[in-house]
Amino acid sequence: MNTIINFLFAAVKNGAPLLLGTTGEIITEKSGSLNLGVEGIMALGAFAGYYAGYKTGSLIMAILAAFLVGALAGLIFAFLTVTLQANQNVTGLTLTIFGSGVALFFGEILIKQRPKLSAALNALLSGTEIPLLSKIPVIGRILFSQNILVYLAIIIAVLAGIYLKYTRLGLKVRAVGENPAAADASGIKVALTRYVNAMLGGGICGIGGAYLALINGRGDWDNNSVSGQGWISVALVIFARWSPFGALLGSLVFGAFYVFQIRVNDIVATFPFLGFLSKIPNAFYSMLPFVITALVLVISSVQKKKVGVQPSSCGINYYREDR
Amino acid sequence: MTETVNAKGSVPDVAIELKGITKKFGTVVANNNIDLSVRRGEILALLGENGSGKTTLMNMLSGIYRPDSGSVFIDGKRVVINSPEDAKKLGIGMIHQHFKLVEVLTAADNIVMGAEERGVFLTRKRFEKTREICKKYGLNVDMEKYVYNMSVSEKQSLEIAKVLYYGAKILILDEPTAVLTPQETKHLFEILRSMRDQGCAIIIITHKLNEVLEISDRVTILRKGESVATVETRNTNANELTELMVGRKVSLAIERPKVKVGANLLHVHHLTIENSDGIEVIKNVSFDLNEGEILGVAGIAGSGQKELCEAIAGLHPIKKGAILYKDENIERRTPRELINLGISMSFIPEDRLGMGLAASLDITDNMMLKNYARGKSPFVDRKTAGETAKRIVKSLDIVTPSINTPVRRLSGGNVQKVLLGREIDASPKVLITAYPVRGLDINSSYTIYNLLNTQKQNGAGVLFIGEDLDVMLELCDRIMVLCHGRVSGIVKASEVTKEQLGLMMTRLSESEVEKNAG
Amino acid sequence: MPDNLNGGGISAQFRAKEPPFRVVKRAELPLEKLILFYVISVLVAVVIGGLFIALNGVNPFLYFKEVFSGCFRSGVAFRGLVRIIVPLLMVSLGVILAFKMRYWNIGAEGQLIMGAVFATWASRAFPGLPTPIMLIVMAVAGIIGGGIWGLITAFFKCRFNTNETLFTLMLNYVAFYIVDYLRNGPWQADPGFPGIGRLAANSRLPQIFRLDISWIVAIVLVFFIYIYLKYTKQGYEIAVVGDSISTARYAGMNVNRIMQRTMFLSAGICGLAGMLKVSGVVSNYTLDTGIASGVGFTAISVAWLAKLNPFGVFVVSFLFGVLEKGCSVAESTFHLSAAITQILQGLILFTILGSDFFIRYKLQLTRGGRKLNEHNN
Fold first, then answer.
1. Which of A64, B283, B310, C204 has the most crowded CB, counting CB atoms within 10 A?
2. What is the pTM of this model?
3. Last residue within a domain, chosen from B246, B276, B296
């Protein structure tokens, strides 16, 4: 039993940064912008978050810095694609190149100082049991004995889900992402909506980066803390079918796949009948999320689904026919 | 030019007034110094042929375009409309011909999305509130239904409900009945009347005369971008409106060389075609095209001309009927198969840069569009194409820096000459041309007419989809008139008047419908 | 539209003014002006980058001088530069084919990896072949491996309109983990260590000027792609499909077949790049998970910057290669992280993406507002 609980605990912990990255990208894509710069934005967020945490010792400052830097990257994306009508794919890829470069540049300067987060901050990040809730058997350990950023990730995802699905503003966002011409004709400010949501989404991705730097580094700075998790977040958007609630489940699944390969021997030791699992190569578990994501993509296109697919105008710039 | 039949145009109850509106697209003047006014509690019909500038004018009211000059007054106050948002705030609502709805949202959400209302959350109340507006005006929309599950008429009702919900007092409808059945049209008119009685000002763009007479209080007629008249509906009749719309017969001195009509080339047999939305746009159409004649096809825009041409050219599937080329059935043949069968047919589509030509390629490359595959060599024969290009540039006086200029950089007339030149160069037996002189200046137009006549003299059969009746009357040998996708008659051009054509285009009587359907 | 933002909260009735400018489409610029625009954009990026370098306490002029000399001061330096350029150039040439057709192939990374996987397989499957035949077999295998990886996405795009941007992106990772599996499983060289052994001597590219011959293949490919796109019937078909699918159908083209064939070729070239990399010095004749190392993504930017022109791609890959090689040399001289490469590349891309707007459109002061007032009086 403990094996499973520990396994799920680790899955949640490793899924949380993906949850943030995915939630941010969902908000961006829902407004019609396909920002392939998540990897770069998370790298920027990782540096900003760690540096602010290191210098101020304050978690709030760390989160704020990561959010602001991410939002700034979102602003660059929006300015280029919305105002200057640049191609979204290329702009996003450029943001990945640029963001990773900037983060690495400053990261290499920082690493020479052999930085350590303050003991107080480290203690704060190591885990916070929520009173009462953490005493619930099983669930208490898996969900309510996590570090504080896990709670933040879940709260952000739930709020984002509510924002997109149940609020008036979210309805405008969905309209802009699906059919900007219709939204425009109804008097919705298409450009403003895309700007705001690219920045909001970028900011949340930035926090996801900060998570990786603050939690996974255990107090030390690691130049490679993001290493591909931004791209995994882009994949997770498809798996989550463009819903932050789907991302809650999806990040748990992706997190579980990640943890599974490390802990497969523990699990097999506990449940001998699962012995065949340890014979499956690790790479298979790493690959599976992407294979499933590709299948989700193909199957929904074969079924010609209308809901749970990429917003129709996502990736396409809007230009009113004004001449 | 403007003969305002009703002189008291600016009484205080005027809801909207346009003064001296001019809009140009490049060198083309879409609207020239147009005045127009609508009173509260009035339905104004905006009548005009295709290309007369109706939609452009209305798009300036709805904030899609901005006028180059002129002013707009709402309730007597001058306003500037920069965006659809501004239009909405001014109480202007436009129902576009192509609906502006978000497919994956419910009807209610399509309405609520643009509403400036208090409250952060979407509640169940939105369904009730939107239903109320439907009830008030007798609109039939299921507010919880997703738009992608809706029929065309439901979508239209939703569009109307939407603008009414936003508090529109001025309603603009662009060709609202084009996609409706007669019953649905009747219902729409009831709704419009009830809105008028509640004080709305309504502008309805149409070219169906019977509907104009049935629904409107006044009619403003546009012709070639200018407002030619405004008349009270009760003081006018279909003949007068037709004359105002098409204008008096103008002699253009286009030649119509006498050529002996030869063998049958193309026989279209009880053809029925659906458009991409699954609506029947060509219904049971039959006609013949023979050697040495130009057969004109007249009809209001959207009467199925596009689909008819594309079906003959093998680009559009047909639902029923047959197309015979010299007694060989060519239905469901792809363009490549037609070429390979040696069927000598050329098609000049309406969308020149989107279908007939590759806009980013140069003149030479566009010359080989249809015959590039010829021969076994893996390389394209740009030498021959270049020679063709030079020959055509010279013989048609195409103004271009060189034959290596991308065609999108040429002017409209020269683009058309490139397209027509290429198609004629293949000396086709059947030549299908859709609106070949649209957007062209006078000189270019005459060049095109002469080219078509030459083809006729060489024994080709030309199918000429046109919009200018004066041109068709002089150029064509016979004219087939389409109305609502049906043939309302095939007449000899020398034996028909312009007014008769106009009436055939717009007023297909019920009995004729029955007859043609049978 | 930038002026959408001006829509503000104030009610329109109170604002009888037009925005101060409107965006107008520009007539196409002549080539000289176009090039001038791009040169200025690159200069702006370099100036911003230079300021950034100066802020870090390094003289930017000395820095760029070092970048330059780091690439050209010796044969060793120059050969290092060439080894960086070759894969980037080849993959960029590959993606051009897809992009010309407006097919968003961002899966070059995975296609390169699969090319390398198939080539390695061929090398292991037919151990006895003489070198020239071996290399040809490997090249064919590489093209097929990469090609299939691209063709899968085109197949679904044509049948079901499956989004190719996301699909090609996903396949990158599947390819990556296939290599991860191979190096830990069936192809593992030493038990306990992830890694595939070096390719046998008959599977290694011969050397010329102390560089393996992949650079010759790349140069030949520049001309090949140029000729293919410009002079062959297939290249012509790609241009027409990319321009307008309706026009392609009108011309009697089989659009699905063209799309699948072109995508196979585009991905096949990326696969060939993978084969050349795995059988070259640059990878130490070894297939590993780092075989692509982001080249597939950078190539997309290169192709875009070069406006999909093969010679332009040559110039841009050269420029990007100089930055990468030069900045890594300058790192040891000035103790300034080589990550400057990516920053500079990013800046250049940003300025050029931005400048495209001013090439297509110009801002025009509106006179409408004044005219309206005159009319009113």
1. B310
2. 0.87
3. B246
